[in-house]
Write a structure and sequence with these properties.
This protein is an alpha+beta fold. Helix content is 34%, strand content 25%. The protein is built from two helices and four strands; from the N terminus they run E-H-E-E-E-H. The strands form two sheets. It has a two-stranded parallel ribbon with strand order 1-2. Strand 1, helix 1 and strand 2 form a beta-alpha-beta unit. The mean pLDDT is 95.
Length: 73
């Protein structure tokens, strides 16, 4: 019974994006590990920006400085 936990910062991830993540991860686990998708569990947990740190700073502070994880910047 595979269990996958995805943690993201709470920054407006939509229901549709979460569904895409769940379907994509389930498909990958099925393809790579040959696991039954009906027994694969995917949990998405959103973390507040103040509760996530990187390089010694809270992500909330990094966002205030204009630093994001978006590829097209």
């Amino acid at each position: 019974m595979p269990y996958v936990k995805i943690e993201v910062t709470r920054e407006g991830v939509t229901r549709e994006q979460k569904q895409a993540l769940i379907a994509g991860v389930t498909g990958l686990i099925t393809e790579v590990l040959d696991k039954d998708p009906h027994l694969t569990h995917v949990v998405i947990q959103e973390v507040e920006l103040d509760d996530w740190g990187y390089a010694g700073e809270q992500v909330s502070v990094l966002r205030e400085k204009g630093i994001t994880a978006t590829r097209n910047q």
